[in-house]
UniProtKB/TrEMBL annotation, chain A:
InterPro entries: MetI-like, MetI-like_sf. Its main location: membrane. Keywords: Cell membrane, Membrane, Transmembrane, Transmembrane helix, Transport. The chain crosses the membrane at residues 12-34, 77-99, 111-133, 145-164, 185-207, 243-263. One of its GO terms (biological process) is transmembrane transport. Residues 73-264 form the ABC transmembrane type-1 domain. GO terms for cellular component: plasma membrane. Belongs to the binding-protein-dependent transport system permease family. This is Transporter. It is found in: Cell membrane. It comes from Dactylosporangium siamense.
TrEMBL record, chain B:
Pfam families: SBP_bac_1. It comes from the Bacteria. InterPro entries: Bact_solute-bd_prot1, SBP. Residues 1-28 form the signal peptide. Transmembrane segments: none annotated. This is ABC transporter substrate-binding protein. Keywords: Signal.
Length: 279, 435
């Protein structure tokens, strides 16, 4: 009896070309951003994809100084960091509880979290502004530190719950027999196993917090001592905007996100790999 | 050998969380969230944000004021949505004392809404009545009526001529700046034949809106134009409709650059400064920017007006001039007895001749006060613009009259720079005006 060997599916040259085209498509905006940061307005508008005739490195220092990006970056780091800590502190126990229960109440609570997706952020703006005013937290960073975790909880809880449901029941029972309580189970069993999910949620929400603009502008405001970097950047816009400086400022605000993402994504891959090789 | 037992990811997240918790209180202490104004400070929201050419002159006034009086200026930069920012702040009970802003759209309703207070009495009491030009004050009166209350103190005036690159015109065989619309059409054809785009304009924003109105009012007297802008009647007013037809005639004759409907002010500036287009409409705020572009365009440019058709109400080509650029709007909080004297010292500091001169020099404003500021007009285009009165007639600036319909009108006019017919344009404007 002869066995029919199915041909191995390879991409072939077409797939390689398409992959490169797709990569170029993704790289084009980044290239445009980078070269624009070193050009004059005239070059940006008349030769958008060409390399700069004169490399205007000063655009970066001008953007940094003019928009006071140092203080704004510090505010963004503070708000994002506190918000992510609060998000994880609330989402992890909630996800643990939901993952360990499979009854109507748990399903109802999960459904309630899912309903959070149905509220568009813009629709929540006015009530949120009123809430900030009533709490006397308008024009403060503290409100944003509290509000961002609230808006991030639905997705965070649902994602983490799914990851925690993959924990083998035998492992949980074994740990329980050894006398582990809920907190010990969460910290020593569930979080390590759900680590890829935890890192994913952290990356996803940090990016969201960092890039948030609408609520930061409306509620935190534009005062130099409290504004985030996303709000500081538009102060470079005027009736005759220097787009080279504005783009340089944009690059500066993107760098921390890129670095964080690069580090965290590597950690995530390592966590996944570590899980794969353990017996 | 790595003796650590926890995976790196766990350590990374743990370190991040611990750092954030530890850093939180420390960083929170870096900035103060307490915006409650002390008696020795004033809260100001300004349209002149950091990227504006007037920001440096403004900061010098702030610093000089604080040095002289000891009163601190808490500055908040207003962005594109400065009107919403201020309204939110007032609603939250955190109103600024003063808003440095232009008179447009929502700010036109602030006096009625109780956000700001009339400035009439302050102008008299602070000795500015004889200093501020009457024409400037009139533009800040409610409804533009002589009896209307003054909504704020005008500061930044502007001239808004047409810029002609005479070098490109000559190369194309156009020996003199067009004075009539027929000459403009002929010049556009010659420019296109020589490979140069004719008139650059941002058909997708406020620059296109202003140029449209400049052309559309060619056959109509000022009073009727104001009424139509305010209440509508673009289709039912024959002279206005005739002006709209003139606009489409110029458009179809290729006077505007290709794809003008998709352009913005920034694309317009770049196109003109780089010598790709020979003509553009731009205000005095662009004088210093054009010099800074480094292309030498300021030396090749002659300022003039937009050519007029035969039978027009204007004798000379038209330009805009106005004082609705930026002014000082005093809020209810700023007008409180304990605070208004600080504002008196602050605002009058801006009107000192040296301060006005500084703004003329830095950002090319048309001075709001009487006096000779020629020595501050170091920019060649600014010097030219001071002589515009002899060569142009001034058209009605639409801002005050179209009010809150401005954005809706821009949407209609983007179509006008595309392919809309005169009837579609006038009907769209009537609908936009009525909201």
């Amino acid at each position: 009896m002869t066995t029919i060997r199915r041909p191995r599916r390879t991409g072939g040259p077409a797939a390689t070309v398409l992959s490169w085209l797709y990569a170029l498509l993704l790289a084009a905006p980044l290239y445009y951003l980078a070269v624009s940061a070193l050009k004059t307005n005239i070059e940006i508008f008349t030769r958008p994809f060409a390399l700069p005739t004169h490399w205007l490195w000063d655009n970066f220092s001008t953007a940094w100084r003019t928009a006071d990006l140092g203080g704004a970056l510090l505010n963004s780091v503070l708000i994002s960091a506190v918000a992510i800590v609060l998000t994880l502190a609330l989402a992890l126990p909630a996800a643990y509880a939901l993952a360990r229960q499979d009854n109507r109440l748990a399903r109802a609570i999960t459904g309630a979290f899912s309903a959070g997706f149905l509220i568009p952020p813009f629709a929540a703006l006015i009530p949120t502004v009123i809430l900030a005013i009533k709490l006397d937290l308008f024009y403060t960073r503290e409100f944003q530190m509290l509000f961002l975790p609230a808006s991030a909880l639905p997705l965070s809880v649902l994602l983490l719950t799914q990851f925690m449901r993959t924990v083998p029941p035998a492992l949980v029972e074994s740990a329980a027999l050894d006398g582990a309580g809920h907190w010990r189970l969460l910290i020593s069993v569930f979080i390590p196993i759900a680590m890829p999910g935890l890192v994913s949620v952290t990356i996803l929400q940090l990016l969201t917090f960092w890039n948030e603009y609408l609520f930061s502008l409306t509620i935190t405001g534009t005062a130099p001592d409290v504004r985030t970097v996303q709000v500081a950047l538009p102060t470079l816009i005027s009736d005759a905007t220097n787009f080279g400086v504005l783009t340089a400022g944009t690059v500066l605000t993107l760098l921390p996100v890129y670095v964080t993402y690069a580090i965290s994504s590597r950690r995530m891959q390592e966590a996944l790999t570590a899980g794969a090789v353990k017996g | 050998m790595d003796h650590r037992t926890r995976p790196r990811a766990v350590r990374a997240v743990a370190a991040f969380v611990i750092s954030a918790v530890a850093l939180g209180p420390a960083l929170a202490a870096c900035g103060s969230d307490d915006k409650a104004a002390a008696p020795d400070s004033i809260d100001v929201v300004t349209r002149w944000s950091a990227g504006n050419s007037a920001a440096a002159a403004q900061n010098r006034v702030f610093q000089a004021f604080t040095a002289e009086t000891g009163i601190k200026v808490n500055v908040t930069e207003g962005l594109e949505t400065i009107d919403d920012q201020v309204e939110n702040a007032v609603a939250a009970g955190k109103s600024p004392d003063l808003v440095i802003v232009n008179l447009f759209d929502k700010t036109l309703g602030w006096l009625d809404a109780g956000v700001t207070v009339p400035a009439d009495q302050y102008i008299k009491d602070w000795g500015l009545a004889d200093k501020i030009k009457p024409a400037a004050l009139d533009e800040w009166r409610v409804g533009g009526a002589p009896t209307g209350k003054v909504q704020g103190l005008p500061f930044s005036g502007f001239s808004w001529p047409l810029w002609y690159n005479t070098e490109l015109l000559k190369k194309a065989g156009v020996d003199k700046i067009p004075a009539t619309t027929d000459e403009l059409i002929a010049a556009a054809a010659k420019l296109r034949a020589s490979g140069v785009a004719p008139l650059a304009v941002g058909g997708n924003d406020w620059t296109g809106q202003k140029l449209f109105y400049q052309i559309a009012q060619s056959y109509t007297d000022a009073a009727t134009v104001k009424q139509v802008m305010q209440k509508g009647g673009y289709c039912s007013t024959p002279t206005v409709l005739e002006g709209i037809k003139l606009f489409t005639q110029l458009r179809d004759a290729g006077v505007f650059v290709d794809n003008a409907a998709g352009l913005t002010a920034d694309a317009m500036y770049a196109s003109y400064y780089s010598g790709k287009a020979a003509i553009m409409p731009a205000g005095s705020w662009a004088y210093t920017e054009s010099t800074a572009s480094g292309t030498g365009i300021d030396k090749k440019t002659t300022l003039g007006g937009f050519p007029v058709p035969s039978g027009a109400t204007f004798k000379k080509p038209t330009a805009y001039r106005g004082f609705t650029g930026v002014g000082f709007m005093i809020t209810k909080k700023g007008a409180e007895p304990g605070r208004i004297d600080n504002l008196r010292k602050f605002i009058t500091k801006f009107y000192a001749d040296t301060s006005v001169g500084d703004f003329v020099k830095d950002s090319g404003i048309l001075p709001p006060t009487t006096g000779d500021f020629g020595s501050y007009a170091t920019n060649p285009l600014l010097t030219q613009s001071l002589g515009l009165d002899a060569t142009v007639d001034y058209a009605v600036v639409p801002d005050v009259w179209i009010g809150a319909a401005s954005d809706r009108i821009i949407q209609v006019l983007t179509g006008a720079y595309g392919k809309s017919t005169p009837q579609q344009i006038c009907a769209g404007l009537d609908t936009a005006t009525k909201g």
